Amino acid sequence: MTLLLEQALNGLQLGVMLFLLAAGLTLVFGIMGLINLAHGSLYMIGAFAAAWVQGRTGSYVVGIVAGLAAAGAVGAAIEVTVLKRLYDRDHMDQVLATFGMILFFNEAMAMLFGRQPLMAAVPPFLSGAVEIIPGVPYPVYRLAIIVVGILVAGGLYFLIGHTRAGMLVRAGATNRTMVRALGVNIRLLTSAVFALGAMLAGLAGAMTGPLLSVQVGMGDRILITTFVVIVIGGIGSIRGALAGALLVGMVDTLARAFLPGLLKAVMAASNADAVGAGLASMAIFILMAVVLLVRPRGLFPAHG
Amino acid sequence: MRQTIARRSLLAGGATFAGTLAAPAIVRAQGGAVKIGLITTLSGPGGYLGQDIRDAFQLAMANDSLGGVKVALTVEDDGLKPAQAKQIANRFLKTDGIKLFTGIVFSNVLEAVAPDILEEGGMYVSPNAGPSTLAGKNCHRNYFVVSWQNDSLHESAGENANRLGHKKMYLLAPNYPAGKDAITGFKRFFKGEVVGESYTKLDQTDYAPEMAQIRAANPDAVFQFHPGGLGIAFLRQYQQAGLVGKIPMVLAAPSLDATTLAAVGEIAVGMDVTAHWNSDFDNAANKAFVAAFTERFKRVPTYYASQGYDTALAIGAALKGSKGDVGEAFRTAMLKADFASTRGKFRFGANQHPVQDWFGLRVEKGADGKLALVTKGKVLSDHGDAYAAQCKI
Predict the structure, then answer these.
(1) How many domains does chain A contain in total?
(2) In a domain, A302, yes or no
(3) Which of A8, B190, B232, B283 has most Cβ atoms within 10 angstroms of its Cβ?
(4) Which of B380, B334, B330, B373 is nearest to B356 (CA)?
(5) Are B315 and B100 in contact (CB under 8 A)?
(6) CATH code at position A166
(7) Domain range holding A13?
(8) What is the mean predicted confidence (pLDDT) over B184-213?
(9) Which of A59-63, A132-136, B228-232, B264-268 ranks highest by mean pLDDT?
């Protein structure tokens, strides 16, 4: 039972991390109709900037700020220079151009920082473990990530649901042309949304530094999962991104933890481990297929 | 994605070509340099492994020659993608006319590429991957492995676990050929009980679920196989989960090399590793290699580097014996393994995989406060592999 609770916490932590990435991606996709494969690169840039600055200054907080700033700045820069030209093109052009950016950023990071993974230390005030479940020490740092994720989700909920800017974002996601016709500067709005999304991706990257190794290409892998999240949640919807991220985080973690064990009940142990691991890595895609079967537009579709 | 270094060697190749034109006819008649295609993983989590292999290989190429024979090296990044590596290999074979290949780090990549190279009559000398699928009845005349057969890494770790007195072990490895070889190899020699097994994803970097499973199983020790950046993430999370110091680790070389050690630091103190090479080996070849590598690249060589270096030396010895031919004569010369390995003793077994000694190492803090892998003793002597008997060459 404690194991299940601990794994659920792990799932929650993965979920909020995915949410930070998915939030930006889904808004950009929903409002601008842009498929931005380079979103994972922003995550990587955030992680590198944070780890590097933290290594130089010794301060975790300064590192996080640097990660946010770097991802936001690079995000704004690519939006102005490249992505703006892509909004009205078809998806294939967008995929090609943003895929090119992945290659560019990966090589750029390799040139700047080398191929050896960078390390960031867990800050002293967040190190150690607490027993929030009796008998199971859980890393404080992971709890902190969960808290930050929830705060960001709350902040976004307020921003999107209860402010004028948020209203425009929602309107833009529903009908972009109409919003423009009503005299709203949708270009400025999209730039702001893009920079916000980039900063959230940078935040996710900066926070993963002390957990995982910061390395070239780290964004590519998580990008696929992030796309699964926004497809499940419904493209363009923040609420959907949150639901999708938590669902994917839970399913992925619990499947990896418990599928091999469950399979042992029905097949030989040595096969169960390998088959279970295989099935577990498919679990989120199976989840996506099932969700799309039942609700073809995702759980919370943004467009009417 | 051609690497800078490849471009540089292309330029060097161009210069050599221009030089050849100017040289007397007799030199041209002897033909150009022997082309070597080095396909390796330079990007992603395994990026530094390929970098070490490439750098050490080039370190061994004094004046662009190996064993006194001029060579031209072309380096390409496979990105740990079998399909990408296949494309590169086919281009090397068909467009560039390369016959001699090396470099691949990961077994899944090698398994995809090796058949293409071997069917076209190419020669492959492995500086790292040695999957079981190519060691037994599918062994090949033109396929040599200088590093190891994958299983032996883990067989030595299993034997080491016995020696250290661990009775209950939890095993973890990524779900790919070398990962499965790891678990199989460990179990082949380990005599105690396996209380749990987890297969992780090869691109996984968050191991929180596995940490919880380990804690719940409460073994005497953990054996895990996660090469490169994966291992770094694993060890750091092992510490964050509060398991360091509670449940010891018995590892094979790929899970804790010099780079991993530098990255994880104090966490690794006291961990047991088995390897066929260590930077502190007391032989002339190794001392020269470690000194030269450290001076040129300003970092401690990993065993990947030692393998890249040994592979270059082995190819050099074979080219010397065959006078630059990459065919049957190369093969015959290669089999003699007439080079001074950084490991000391080295010979090829019946399946053209190494027969060598395995050592137990432990992470200790040196007098200068730096962490280092210290050789503690021999675990296995003249160890070949379980598949050699099935190989008919």
Answers:
(1) 1
(2) no
(3) B232
(4) B380
(5) yes
(6) 1.10.3470
(7) 2-118+139-294
(8) 88
(9) A59-63
